[in-house]
């Protein structure tokens, strides 16, 4: 019995060391800040960070499965039938919307791209996916194809700031296929013409045959990226609210049940169509309280089959 208790204490101490290591090396906290957040002395915080290194829990990314995060991931998998779930620790004082999950999403992308067998990787856009791509190491992956799910043209005709396809192609040396259209067309007629273009048809075909897809989950509150980045107007955002929209994936707005809305701005979205993920590998990456309605709906409607999020968000989703 004592042996079991000793083993539990050892595992708990490793959990504490991993958490302290994450706060120090990933979140950039000082040892004083770590001590305050974990409710321990500065000397204890220093010892825990040292233990994380001694036990090789910390490399470039956290390499120790924190028990609570693993339990939350398992609960989300069981509740929503997910194929994959990764829950990273939360930094209670951080206001970042990508801290931790960008590194975890990068790790997933890196594992995927290490495959010697050719595959198609489809990517959405936005702050989280851009932050993940920026974490990738230089690689040489000419066997793969990387394809965009969403247009790369902003409303003023410039390249979309959060488009990631060219960036990831430069990093991993893989052929890339951008979507050469606006995120939201100016009219239904314009969208129809654009989608008939041979190049656009080819990109859509590749995206729909993707082996792995990774997308951000967008909120549709008053600070919705679609609105703040100028893709839709305030009036259009209000109309989406009135229709029950709570989130969007590559521009496609959906309601609390995860059903894609008909009409409204969805009539003009030029992105690759989305729907139930089914057996496809569609990884959503998002965190934070403002994203909760969109995340719950995406899980409810099975728009994603995998999730990368942080501990605080996972607790809210399982609560």
H/E order of the elements? HHHHEHEHEHEHHEEHHEEEHEH
Low-confidence stretches: none
* Spatial strand arrangement across the major sheet: 1-10-9-5-2-3-4
What's the number of extended β-strand segments? 10
Radius of gyration: 21 Å
Verbal overview:
- With 319 residues, the chain is of the alpha/beta class.
- The protein has two domains: 2-54, Arc Repressor Mutant, subunit A (Orthogonal Bundle), CATH 1.10.10; 67-318, 3-Layer(aba) Sandwich (Rossmann fold), CATH 3.40.50.
- The chain is 43% helix and 16% strand.
- The protein contains 13 helices and ten strands.
- The chain has helices spanning 2-25, 31-38, 42-54, 67-80, 101-113, 127-133, 165-172, 188-195, 198-208, 225-228, 234-242, 292-300, 311-318, and strands spanning 84-88, 120-123, 145-153, 176-182, 212-216, 218-219, 245-249, 252-255, 282-285, 306-310.
- The strands form two sheets. Strands 1-10-9-5-2-3-4 form a seven-stranded parallel beta sheet, with helices on both faces. It has a three-stranded antiparallel beta sheet with strand order 6-7-8.
What's a concise summary of this model?
The protein is built from 13 helices and ten strands. It is α/β, with parallel strands linked by helices and 319 residues long. It starts with a helix and ends with a helix.
How is the topology of this model organized?
Elements: H1 2-25, H2 31-38, H3 42-54, H4 67-80, E1 84-88, H5 101-113, E2 120-123, H6 127-133, E3 145-153, H7 165-172, E4 176-182, H8 188-195, H9 198-208, E5 212-216, E6 218-219, H10 225-228, H11 234-242, E7 245-249, E8 252-255, E9 282-285, H12 292-300, E10 306-310, H13 311-318
Parallel strand pairs: 1-10, 2-3, 2-5, 3-4, 5-9, 9-10
Antiparallel strand pairs: 6-7, 7-8
Helix pairs in contact: 1-3, 2-3, 4-13, 5-6
